């Protein structure tokens, strides 16, 4: 009897698992009207969908295995069908499919999880329709990424970076990522609010709340006391209160100096659209929440990784330093600081930054939602379904980048990236408006490292954690020492 019992139990378990997975697919596919097939895939378990395999892949240091499992099962179709973050979803995983989704504003709108929208705000770029996004981007981008704006910010950025290196060199050891986040937050706060580290409590309060906000953005949306998401919602509320106070104070200030500030808040308060309308308080505050968050977190992580890659590749380090020496040797007498022309001359350093962006993939994916049934590659993306543009799968695809796990800045000499092939900042009309500012920051950090300092990692072989952002588990502990001149 026992010999029959075990096989029967196994058979029942297999049938139950199969039925549950079939049910999850049937539940969302039933009633779809398109005659074109859905992309291949499966929707996993009811409620959980494919989230368990996603989390396992990233928690156990196999971040490429999630998409590669679809490719090995269904072939290189460029589109796959899972159930992710509580919604039926289509994954776009090749340059061609990613390009089509990112560039098609007529059929795709932002599809970020509700939790992300709640934390960033209804008037932030993650939630706006194409028309509203286009309007706000045109009004705000010149004060962030315009040539004049970048030139104005460069001096402050360099001053803050030089000060940071001097401070780090006087410490026995530092946690590099944490220190970089402090500096980049200092920089972005000055650019947007004219806050400096000497501002004290206001800047410290902002930084504290943003730390909590960041921890919840990609956490499970469980609003219970003690959870990261609950703490992030409280941080969002506190940030809105702080930024509302700053906005009202700036508006009502009789101080002529306050009204002549060239920071981004001043631009947001005074810019008018084609109809002569000013931005609302909600628009200003949500834009500040979004920009201050993105403007320090990504820059800090990429700067850390660019430094890690450089110090672990002596040949690349030497080439990067030679380029910087050549640029400085061409300076006229009396010039002691970086200027925008020199930043634009840093061609080899830009390749190092681009290769770091490709390898690290700070953002795993971009979320969209189909407004209509959309046909791509002979498959249908149904109306109302989420679409995830998987940046990582493109950047780490051996058919796109030969030997993709090798850090090789020289690959950019041979590659002419086609649209959809290199998308660390997205693409199309929603390309990250702060990308040039971020790259300029990184250039300044690396420039001064190469000339004046040496960084030694204390745990060069420590493992990497991939969620919510790739980072060494020790956050890159190290020593900074000033070079003798």
Automatic annotation (TrEMBL):
<keyword id="KW-0479">Metal-binding</keyword>
<keyword id="KW-1133">Transmembrane helix</keyword>
<dbReference type="GO" id="GO:0016020">
    <property type="term" value="C:membrane"/>
</dbReference>
<dbReference type="GO" id="GO:0016132">
    <property type="term" value="P:brassinosteroid biosynthetic process"/>
</dbReference>
<dbReference type="GO" id="GO:0016125">
    <property type="term" value="P:sterol metabolic process"/>
</dbReference>
<keyword id="KW-0408">Iron</keyword>
<feature type="binding site" description="axial binding residue">
    <location>
        <position position="432"/>
    </location>
    <ligand>
        <name>heme</name>
    </ligand>
</feature>
<dbReference type="InterPro" id="IPR036396">
    <property type="entry name" value="Cyt_P450_sf"/>
</dbReference>
<dbReference type="GO" id="GO:0010268">
    <property type="term" value="P:brassinosteroid homeostasis"/>
</dbReference>
<keyword id="KW-0503">Monooxygenase</keyword>
<keyword id="KW-0812">Transmembrane</keyword>
<keyword id="KW-0349">Heme</keyword>
<dbReference type="GO" id="GO:0051777">
    <property type="term" value="F:ent-kaurenoic acid monooxygenase activity"/>
</dbReference>
<dbReference type="InterPro" id="IPR017972">
    <property type="entry name" value="Cyt_P450_CS"/>
</dbReference>
<dbReference type="InterPro" id="IPR002401">
    <property type="entry name" value="Cyt_P450_E_grp-I"/>
</dbReference>
<dbReference type="Pfam" id="PF00067">
    <property type="entry name" value="p450"/>
</dbReference>
<keyword id="KW-0472">Membrane</keyword>
<dbReference type="GO" id="GO:0009686">
    <property type="term" value="P:gibberellin biosynthetic process"/>
</dbReference>
<keyword id="KW-0560">Oxidoreductase</keyword>
<dbReference type="InterPro" id="IPR001128">
    <property type="entry name" value="Cyt_P450"/>
</dbReference>
<protein>
    <submittedName>
        <fullName>Putative ent-Kaurenoic acid hydroxylase-like cytochrome P450</fullName>
    </submittedName>
</protein>
<dbReference type="GO" id="GO:0005783">
    <property type="term" value="C:endoplasmic reticulum"/>
</dbReference>
<comment type="pathway">
    <text>Hormone biosynthesis.</text>
</comment>
<comment type="pathway">
    <text>Plant hormone biosynthesis; gibberellin biosynthesis.</text>
</comment>
<dbReference type="GO" id="GO:0020037">
    <property type="term" value="F:heme binding"/>
</dbReference>
<comment type="similarity">
    <text>Belongs to the cytochrome P450 family.</text>
</comment>
<dbReference type="GO" id="GO:0005506">
    <property type="term" value="F:iron ion binding"/>
</dbReference>
